[in-house]
Amino acid sequence: MILENHLDVPADPDAVFALINDVERVAGCLPGATLDGQEGDAYHGRVKFKVGPISAAYSGTVRFSEVAAADRRLRLLARGADSHGNGDAEADVTLTVTEAPGGATLNLHTDLSVRGKLAQFGKSAINTVSNRLLDQFARNLAVQLRQQTGPQFPNRRPGSEPPMAPDPSQLRGPPPPTAARPSTG
Fold first, then answer.
1. Are 10 and 99 contacting, i.e. CB atoms less than 8 angstroms apart?
2. How many CB atoms lie within 10 A of CB 163?
3. Residue 151 above 60 pLDDT?
4. pLDDT tens digit string along 3-45?
5. Alpha-carbon distance 24 to 20, whole Å?
6. Secondary structure of the chain: what % helix, strand, coil (to 5)?
7. The pLDDT of residue 184
8. Alpha-helical segments (H) within the chain
9. Whether pTM exceeds 0.85
10. Rounded CA gap, 112 and 28, in Å?
11. What is the pLDDT of residues 57-80, one digit of tens each?
12. Are the C-beta atoms of 139 and 177 separated by less than 8 Å?
């Protein structure tokens, strides 16, 4: 099944692309994902999520098969098996980061194959779960990027120390995205 998603991230497109390529940091942005290590060009990890009444837990690998930094495009191949022996999944994902008003848009084209228990839920349920996970992923990316560049203190007097924990209202920039937008195509 083909899934198309477009995620708005209120950050510089080059910074978004750089973070997407930093597997150790970006893995923590995907809800339920844990990075277990790297062997050669393969990253090993796990992901847990829920589709309807069924909780799924997959273990597998992700490989970057193409990285075109000048175009802010990458392609990755993911394979995983359900930890309970109830099926497996494969995804071929092409991700591009484009400039957008207020920051960047991540465009994801995913060719997903799901076998086993989860396949019974069909594209609609899987797409709903995918949108929910990607929505949170985009929000987590935005937070990670804000932390990376450091908070801004517009009311700080020269020579004064910034507060230890800034008030979120002092952070500059638009708020994080609120929803993944599935493609209508």
1. no
2. 11
3. no
4. 999 999 999 999 999 999 999 889 889 888 999 999 999 999 9
5. 10
6. 30, 45, 30
7. 44
8. 13-20, 23-26, 122-149
9. no
10. 22
11. 899 999 999 999 999 999 999 999
12. yes
pLDDT of the residue at 154:
34
Provide the b/e sequence for 61-91 (b: ≥16 CB within 10 Å): bbeeeeeeeeebbbbbbbbbbbeeebbbbeb
Joined tokens for residue 118: 């989860």
The one-letter amino acid at 126: I
31 - beta bridge partners?
A: none
List the structure tokens of 110. Answer: 């995913």
- CA-nearest of 50, 74, 49, 80 to 62 is 80
pLDDT at position 149, please? 64
One-letter amino acid identity for 51?
Answer: V
Question: Cα angle vertex 86, ends 83, 92, to 5°?
Answer: 80
Contact 59, 80 (CB under 8 A): yes
Residues 6+ apart with CB under 8 A from 78: 60, 61, 62, 63, 89, 90, 91, 93
Q: Phi first, then psi: give them for residue 71, nearest 5 degrees.
A: -100, 0
Range 164-184 average pLDDT: 36
Q: Cα(138)–Cα(105) distance, rounded to whole angstroms?
A: 10
Residue 106: alpha-carbon gap to chain centroid: 9
**How far is it between the farthest Cα atoms of the chain?**
62
